[in-house]
Amino acid sequence: MSDQNTFLTSAEDVAKSLLAEHGATAQNIAARKLVDAIKRGDTQDWKQWLRVRECIISLGDAARYTRRLSDKLLWTIEQTLQSDMPHLASLLAVILQDALDAEEKAKNEARTDAPQKRPPLGGGIDNDVPEYTRRLSDKLIWALQQAVAQGQMEIARSLKPIYEVALEGEAARAKEYMARNR
Question: What kind and span of H or E run contains 73?
């Protein structure tokens, strides 16, 4: 068996194992492993965990979580990795960690019955479920909008320049495409 086939088979085995052991939280566990690999700069490991997440989704856990800010950021990180932009994924992983920390803090505060002055970090009743999109800028703007709505201004400030660069890149590619097809 080739290394590529072994890689894909082992990712599927890991996905099946995670689903069997953790059920609905398997995506979250694989996501944490993916982010850890990105932070370490371990290319082989993040490629493996990205494939594991893809297998989890293909094996039946098809609901892509997009309710929490961290879910939107993770979805964006996956696209940057699939588009071979690991440096951008590394930057987004740091922002994702800030979002995860804020969500954990909000969850702990909610347990102490602290009054909430902002929409819940989990998305609340008015959760937005964005339709699938190929554009990185769409994923980034959803995350940016949610960060602002939740009062996570430091995260929003971090995302804004990344969104602007992604948008400029998409505009340049569109212009190039139009010039080629005239």
Answer: helix 69-82
Residue-wise pLDDT for 78-89, tens only, equals: 889 888 888 898
CB 43 within 8 A of CB 98: no
User: Which of the residue ranges 36-40, 70-74, 98-102, 171-175 would you say has the lowest mean pLDDT?
Assistant: 171-175
Per-residue pLDDT of 120-148, as tens digits, reads: 555 443 444 444 557 788 888 888 888 88
How far, in Å, CA of 127 to CA of 16, rounded? 29
Query: What letters, b where the CB count within 10 A reaches 16 and e where it falls short, cover 5-41?
Result: eeebeebbebbeebbeeeeeebbbbbbebbbebbeee
Q: Residues with Cβ < 8 Å from 33, sequence gap 6 or more?
A: 45, 49, 52
SS3 118: coil
Q: Quote the pTM value.
A: 0.67
Number of helices (H), then strands (E), belonging to the chain: the values are: 7, 0
